Amino acid sequence: MAAFTVWKFDDPDGADQAAETLKFAERDRLVKIVDHAVVRWPVGADKPDVRHGHEDKWHATGWGAFWGLLIGALWAVPVVGALAGAGLGALHKATENTGITKEQLETIRTEITEGTSGLFLVTEEGDLDRLGERFHGWNSKLIATNLTEGERSILIETFGGA
After folding, report:
1. d(CA 40, CA 90)
2. How many CB atoms lie within 10 A of CB 25?
3. Interatomic CA distance for residues 92 and 96, integer angstroms
4. What are the sequence ranges of the domains in the chain?
5. What's the pLDDT at 43?
6. How many CB atoms are located within 10 Å of the residue 137 CB?
7. Are the C-beta atoms of 7 and 31 separated by less than 8 Å?
8. Which of 1, 9, 30, 35 is the most exposed place for a label (fewest CB within 10 A)?
9. What is the pLDDT averaged over residues 51-68?
10. The whole model's pTM is what?
11. Where does residue 44 rank: exposed (0-12), middle (13-18), buried (19+ CB within 10 A)?
């Protein structure tokens, strides 16, 4: 079963460290990574930095579009009141067939702030509990969306090629 997950770290470098650990978790067959992105928000920065993690160039463009849409829009939409709700509503509309809810978008936006980082993943065949054990001790928090097979197919077809 595929899953979209976001791991929040209480340090701007935590997601980078977790991305390295993720490679070992895949090697140990805890998880199969479809794609990932690291969001770092250093203290004093106006907005977060994003690093797309997929190394398979043939469909990286599709995933880049997904991460750009999702991550860019999370922090580009207005932050105040009804405008934030409208912006997240528009983002939800764009991602509604992927199984990512408006509530999850709101949680991601409010959790990943200046001085923190996030590891955004699309995985298959993963044991997220055991993966979380690998991140233990880094002040991490999991925000997870388990996708149905139909949602997974839409996500892969729309953004992942294969």
Report:
1. 24
2. 21
3. 5
4. 3-142
5. 96
6. 7
7. no
8. 1
9. 60
10. 0.74
11. exposed
CA distances from 134 to 4, 7, 142 (A): 18, 12, 12
If one counts every other C-beta atom within 10 angstroms of the C-beta of residue 8, the result is 21
Among candidates 133, 162, 131, which has minimal Cα distance to 23? 131
Name 124's bridge partners. Answer: 32
Q: What phi and psi, each to the nearest 5 degrees, are found at residue 7?
A: -105, 125
- pLDDT of 84 above 50: no
Please give the structure tokens belonging to residue 98: 């992927």
Which two three-digit tokens encode residue 62? 């599709």
**3-state SS of the chain?**
CCEEEEEEECCCCHHHHHHHHHHHHHHCCCCEEEEEEEEECCCCCCCCEEEECCCCHHHHHHHHHHHHHHHHHHHHCCCCHHHHHHHHHHHHHHHHHHCCCHHHHHHHHHHCCCCCEEEEEEEECCCHHHHHHHCCCCCEEEEEEECCHHHHHHHHHHHHCC
Amino acid letter, 3: A
